[in-house]
Design brief:
Elements: H1 15-30, H2 48-63, H3 86-92, H4 94-103, H5 105-112, H6 120-128
Helix pairs in contact: 1-2, 3-6, 4-5, 5-6
The protein binds zinc ion.
Length: 138
Amino acid sequence: VIANKGGKIDPGDGPGEILLHEMVHALRMLSGVFSDPNFTANPHMDDVEEFYAITVQDVYRSERGFLQLRRDHWGHQALSASLSGSNAYYEEYKDPIDKWFETQKAFCLELASVRAKFNPFHAAVLAKNPEPTPMAHR
Ligand SMILES: [Zn+2]
């Protein structure tokens, strides 16, 4: 049963967002790259796996047209405006995002190709490759 919230879906709380979040966990577990270290960049993410799942959720949420994104793993509050830009978010979390590219490059490149206002994976590709990306040549 989907609760009626008068059409409002809090950041990270839509059924599709929740399913996608869990699928990111499952993908990383099945791929043998699931890890559970502390996430010192933001303790409210709890660990790096929650950070990854929330970041993918937010790309999906943005693709659907939402402007308010999920801030962290401690609830469903909105990400600050200063971090809601793809480049700002990538710069803030460059190390864990780059690490994901190193371990699951094909997956991250697919994410980078998603046309969404918020897409730090796309920002990462542009930062690493100021020339036209391979995707532009498809
Ligand atoms: Zn989770």
